[in-house]
Amino acid sequence: MGADGRLLDVEAIDAHYGRSQALFNVSFDVGRREVVALLGRNGAGKTTTLRSIMGLNTVSQGAISFEGNRISGRRPHEIARSGISYVPETRDPFSLLTVEENIMLGYRDGSPYDLKRILSWFPDLGGLMQRRGSQLSGGQQQMMVIGRGLAPGPRLLLLDEPSQGLAPVIVKMVGRVLAELRGEDLSIVLVEQNLNLALSVADRIVVMENGSVVDRLSAEEGRRHPERIERYLTIH
Ligand SMILES: Nc1ncnc2c1ncn2[C@@H]1O[C@H](COP(=O)(O)OP(=O)(O)OP(=O)(O)O)[C@@H](O)[C@H]1O
Q1: Which domain of life is it from (predicted)?
Q2: Across residues 37-46, what is the average pLDDT?
Q3: Which of 34, 43, 48, 106 could potentially form a cystine with 152 if both were Cys, beta carbons 3.0 to 4.6 Å apart?
């Protein structure tokens, strides 16, 4: 834990793709058991921020700390082992493995999340354990990869656009699962384009544009003044 109880500290990070700069001086923090939503248009830098936390992108300036220890500069597998899971936008299911194998791939001894507990949040997957990862609907795949992210027992889950491409009724289901996870000793950084989903599960909102943080507000403030966020989103 950081000095003042913060779980994750992103401090003034820059990131580049070749010579093109994608993140400019991005700072935010996440407390224990807190859900922080990163909002902004396509290309705002949200995925790059998650990938930087996970060590999949190099941070060229600034630092990232988790539980008070610096993790920027470490390798992704070390960062995962320290207690962070990343569920990418692309979901990346292992198509040839069964649903059960996909979920349990990352299970670690001592994780509070065994298959039974994971299925308690995703009962719809219960009858599909022996299906292959490729034989699922988009919503079922999303449940499976969130389950895979939980299996190691992380204290921080990085979720990249879990609602993307899903029918509204399935988006609601994802929202319900995230709300249920609020009871766990777990923090979440949620990247979303769906403002309603973000406002319903987040404690705080960080708004990004063109690689920079342009606003920070509580979800409560966001619900009262959605226009403060909407101007930075593409409303469909
Ligand atoms: N692999 C890459 N190579 C070069 N530039 C990239 C790469 N990935 C992202 N970028 C650029 O970095 C900037 C930030 O992109 P990023 O994917 O982080 O945004 P985002 O807010 O997550 O958007 P999206 O919702 O589309 O994923 C954009 O200008 C994007 O074009």
Answers
A1: Bacteria
A2: 95
A3: 106
**Length of the chain as a residue count:** 236
Distance CA 112, CA 123 (A): 18
Pocket test for ligand 1, best of 26, 46, 50, 233 (most atoms within 8 A of CB): 46
The predicted pLDDT at position 2 comes to 56
Q: Which of ligand 1's atoms lies nearest the C-alpha of 47? A: 22
Q: Which two tokens stand for residue 27?
A: 């700072």
Backbone φ and ψ for 65, nearest 5 degrees, come out as -120, 145
Q: Which of 171, 122, 169 is nearest to 148 (CA)?
A: 122
Q: Which ipTM did the prediction report? A: 0.94
Atom of ligand 1 nearest to the CA of 38: 21
Residue intervals of the chain classified under CATH 3.40.50.300 are 1-83+155-236
Which long-range contacts does 119-124 make (Cβ < 8 Å, 24+ apart)? Answer: 119/147, 121/147, 121/177, 121/180, 121/181, 122/146, 122/147, 122/177, 124/173
Mean pLDDT of 33-50: 96
Contact 57 CB / ligand 1 (< 6 Å): no
* 234 pocket-lining for ligand 1 (C-beta < 6 Å): no
